[in-house]
UniProtKB/TrEMBL annotation:
SUPFAM superfamilies: P-loop containing nucleoside triphosphate hydrolases (SSF52540)
Protein name (Swiss-Prot/TrEMBL): Replication restart protein PriA
Cofactor(s) demanded: Zn(2+)
Residues at which Zn(2+) 1 binds: 446, 449, 486, 489
Top enzyme category: isomerase
Catalytic activity entry: Couples ATP hydrolysis with the unwinding of duplex DNA by translocating in the 3'-5' direction; ATP + H2O = ADP + phosphate + H(+)
Species annotation: Magnetococcus marinus (strain ATCC BAA-1437 / JCM 17883 / MC-1)
A cellular-component GO term for this protein: primosome complex
Membership in a protein family: Belongs to the helicase family. PriA subfamily.
EC number: 5.6.2.4
Amino acid sequence: MYALVALTGARDASFSYKIPAELADGCHPGYLVLVPVGNSLRTGVVWACSATPQWCEGELKEIEEVLSDESLLDDELRQLLNWMIRYYHQPAGAVITAALPGHLRYDRKQRIRWNPAADPTTLAQQPAALQAIATALQKRSNGLTEETLARNHGRRGLSRRLKQLEMAGYILTEQSWNARHTATEAAESPTSRVMQAAPPLNEQQQQAVGQLVAALEAQHFAAFLLDGVTGSGKTEVYFRGVEHCLAQGRQALLLVPEIALTPQLIQRYEARFHENLAVFHSEMSAARRYRDWQRAKSGAARVVIGARSALFAPFAKLGLIVVDEEHEGSYKQEEGVPYNARDMAVVRARMNQAVLVLGSATPSMESLYNAQQGRYHHLHLTQRATGVALPPVQVINLADKKNLQGLPFGTLLSHPLRQAMQQVWQAGKQSLLFLNRRGFAPAILCNLCGITVSCPNCSVALTLHKGAAKLVCHYCDHVQGVPDLCPNCKQLGLIQFGPGTERLQLEVESCFPEARVARLDRDAVAQSGAMERILKQFHEGQIDILVGTQMVAKGHHFPRLTLVGVVLAETTLSMPDFRAAERTFQLITQVAGRAGREAEVGQVYVQSFDPAHYAIQAAMAHDADRFADAEFGFRQLVGYPPFKRMAVLRFSTPNVQEGGHFIHELRRLVPDQPGVVVLGPAPAPLFKLRNRFRWQLMIKAETVQGVHAMVSQLLQIAQPMAGRKIRVDVDIDPYGFV
């Protein structure tokens, strides 16, 4: 027997191996195995088995060991991953690594021991470095790990020295592969809960639920775009669909864009249903994730809730997939395999003949277009479930001097916004300020020589974090101290440029010294549990004013919140991305939707230097149709999705001259193809990232088939030229262009 094995984490093609007779009964597709690669051992997943070596000719190495006692990827999941491999032009190993939870992988443990058959008297003939290692091992009968030896004797050259000692017969090396999920975790004891009754549905909710139930009854694939204003009761529509799905004996998957939203959805679910949940997200322990993975696979857990990676949970009988806040860019993975969990949810629902619900108050242009083309059923919820009107939106023109007159230069809060916040605070209500830039200032520059203090690893300015007294790169996490003098001209000319949430918090605390102020951004929630604590405090009224990034805009419900301020709308409008207007409209609409969700109507203030922009005007009017019409017109005019299909090929190397030569040669060889436009290759907007210089090539085509054909041709040309020195990455349906 022979097996095609995809190495976990590898960017290479799959490899063929012979299955030893003693392993044949326990080696099947989806099983995790240990295989030799060169002079080392690697883990991989058996992708296919055959009685003949149909994938490769010649002498094949044998599989060393079968590590799992069950298939980690059933037939349905392998079918989904095969689809991803072809669609995203990715190697099988990389796709499997993206899908296979970390708790199901195995770690290599290497222990080095003194060889009792060795003659210690001959050690004196060896170099001092080897003698030191051998002497340390002689003193430890159980041996030492490579990590311990590295700490005591240095990591540099250690592997070479160990190899020398092993070849000379002084040491023995033992390897073991241990599962990450071996630690046990007690199952949660069932708790006695008072179940909340289902709230009554309004007429629009009833119509939406009726269509979902009819689709579930048909037990065929159907896709719905649930397009409902903020606070319209979309979650209740989801729950009614889940309720009917469970009554049919099937399972449901609920995807959320951020881990932060998972506890909130779990609380609401547990208040309504007796069913036990399986939860998937990266902050859970390995043992807990393994337990929930097994429960979902067996069907014991009939509902799975989680972020992007929950898409790959195993199911016994999947009947419903819900993608909440489907417009969110966080469903698109940028690192590793660049897949979109929303799009893959469509594929998985179709494969399982399941019902799919994409929900949002601000649907993506792609989903709206699919609904217009009849691919999705379009459900509308135009009223808030509580009956409270949507908050009025007032735009403050920052270019109008009277709005900032008399205030210090660089002030972030205009007179109208300050006055509104004062009234809300005096009334005992809450305010939320949104600024989508963390840190104190996004740049430090010299007003004498004009240079910006930049990251040494990336072509980007370092962000000042005043609380930590550090300059930080938000791309590679480089950290350095704040200089007193300009690093270029050595003069006292450094100034802070631009706004950030740290600076905004300080200004709010200065304006409202008696108010309880907090900040919600990635820096403020770096410690485990910090996000949940801040959200809970704000929900319970223990915080008067909350300053935050886009974390505050995603699906939260704050009953005491009546005022929302968007401090600077241009932070997203200025991005070099054709989706900039869409993201601006979505963020303003979503964050505005946090205000006045209970009995009292809220109020929203949007500060902008470009208040006439159609995205801001449409958000001010709560008019999604108006924005969609304008945005569709722009996209169709310039040939962007959803009217054209796109892909980006990125090329990176640590050697800029080598990369420049490669790009020059590649440009000559780009083929012509009818209906396909190839732009570039050209330097990426962020040219240097993590010490690699980057170029990109953009493909636009009338059809997705045209995109794939051109990508395949370009890979055939570029990959042999690139070799191992230049990395080639493919991004189908890209979301980011930086």
